[in-house]
Write a structure and sequence with these properties.
- Strands 3-2-1-4-5-7-6 form a seven-stranded mixed beta sheet, with helices on both faces.
- A hairpin with a 2-residue loop joins strand 6 and strand 7.
- Helix content is 29%, strand content 27%.
- The termini are far apart.
- The chain is an alpha/beta fold.
- The chain has six helices and seven strands; from the N terminus they run H-E-H-E-H-E-H-E-H-E-E-E-H.
- The chain is globular and about 40 Å long.
């Protein structure tokens, strides 16, 4: 697993913790090609796992990345990965790492009016069934900037059902992986 492009392009992200399913290099490359520039964006990497999506965004010019990971073991490995890139959340305010369940983290982030995001990656464990609940909490919160993009990774065999307040703007399939781009429907944000 490596960083595809940007200031850390080509750097190895190291060993993947057991039980973590990282987004493949091929899917990440296609995802970022489809996104276009992420320069200057604030990014939220929910269900961060290896942190590959958030790190890739920072490598390509995002100004702030917040990682959310509920597993203490996986969060420690992510912190070590960031430090290996000289990106220490304890010393650099461009990064933060919240060790918490995604729903709790969304509530916590919502309480800080300075935390707004332009781009959110949501890649929960496929078997968790947690995707829709996390999306509803995210879109109901006040943490998305106007025009924010939310990219959801999931299994191709289980596409997202229609969800109130959200609309699908793009979908792409890569083998068994389905990427879905969402935005808030106009009726919700009014």
């Amino acid at each position: 697993m490596r960083i595809i492009s940007g200031r850390f392009g080509g750097r190895d992200l190291g060993k993947v913790p057991d039980g973590v399913r990282p987004t493949s290099d091929r899917v990440r490359e296609s995802l970022f090609s489809s996104l276009g520039s992420v320069e200057g964006l604030a990014v939220l990497d929910l269900f961060a796992g290896t942190g590959a999506l958030g790190i890739e965004a920072y490598s390509r010019g995002a100004i702030r990345v917040m990682f959310v990971e509920r597993s203490r073991r996986v969060a420690r490995a992510l912190k070590a990965r960031l430090e290996a890139l000289d990106l220490d959340p304890a010393e650099d305010t461009s990064f933060s790492l919240i060790e918490a369940d995604a729903l709790r983290a969304i509530r916590r982030i919502s309480n800080d009016s300075g935390n707004r995001f332009d781009l959110v990656f949501l890649d929960p464990p496929y078997a968790d069934g947690y995707r829709e609940e996390a999306l509803e909490a995210l879109f109901a919160s006040e943490i998305l900037e106007s025009g924010a993009r939310v990219v959801v990774e999931g299994p191709k065999r289980h596409p997202l059902p229609p969800l109130p307040g959200m609309r699908v703007v793009n979908e792409r399939r890569y083998g068994d992986t389905l990427l879905t781009w969402l935005e808030t429907s106009a009726a919700v944000r009014g």
